[in-house]
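Whiteboard transcription, Tuesday session. T.W. wrote the structure tokens on the left side:
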């Protein structure tokens, strides 16, 4: 399973990239706003920090303007992945862009039928929003299961990028279902390494090691 981080905070991305565990980055207009930086500039910097796909979202709602925005975003770097919304115009743009060799992430997916359309449009990634689904009284993880089943039924190459993940259990369940990629905020990714018994065990070992009076170096 690939790990993307959902942020436009370059300090956080740099820190996670240094672990060697990061496969890509996702951004959206809200995260760009949060960064307080210029969109094209911050995307360019992020593209230099990771080798994998960096999702940068178009903001137009019509196909023609989406294509114009995508043209500008594609010039930033080879690893830019154009993020388009799951609308008819977004799907039309997805088809045109992937036919032209671009990476495309279709975002704001809330149903398996939407995911089916994205796969038919040749999307590189489909982004179902698990947390927002849960927030609205639906079952976000069941959505990932349905999409997995449908994509496997027809051997679609589109990768399931489970997005809007809020806590480590979301990540665990996505891994069990077989999502291809997860994207989560830096704090959630860091939480995956945490366990109270790991901390307690380390404290015990450190205390006993001190009693030996030895050093390794
Ligand atoms: O980038 C898309 C998605 O991950 C947003 O997450 O937490 O704003 O629902 P959230």
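and on the right, the sequence the group agreed on:
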């Amino acid at each position: 399973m690939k790990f993307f981080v959902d942020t436009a905070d370059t300090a956080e991305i740099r820190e996670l990239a240094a672990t060697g565990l990061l496969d890509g980055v996702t951004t959206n207009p809200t995260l760009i706003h949060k960064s307080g930086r210029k969109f094209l500039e911050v995307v360019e910097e992020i593209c230099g920090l990771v080798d994998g796909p960096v999702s940068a979202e178009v903001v137009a709602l019509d196909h023609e303007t989406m294509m114009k925005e995508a043209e500008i975003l594609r010039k930033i770097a080879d690893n830019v992945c154009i993020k388009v919304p799951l609308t008819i115009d977004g799907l039309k743009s997805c088809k045109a862009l992937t036919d032209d060799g671009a990476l495309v992430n279709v975002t704001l997916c809330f149903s398996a039928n939407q995911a089916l359309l994205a796969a038919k449009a040749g999307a590189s990634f489909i982004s179902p929003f698990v947390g927002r689904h849960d927030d609205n009284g639906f079952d976000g993880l069941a959505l990932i299961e349905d999409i997995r089943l449908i994509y496997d039924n027809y051997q679609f190459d589109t990768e399931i990028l489970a997005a809007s993940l809020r806590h480590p259990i979301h990540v665990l369940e996505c891994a069990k279902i077989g999502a291809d990629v997860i994207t989560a905020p830096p704090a959630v990714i860091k939480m995956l390494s945490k366990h109270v018994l790991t901390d307690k065990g380390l404290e015990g070992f450190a205390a006993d090691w001190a009693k030996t009076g030895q050093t390794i170096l």
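Someone added at the bottom: The mean pLDDT is 98.
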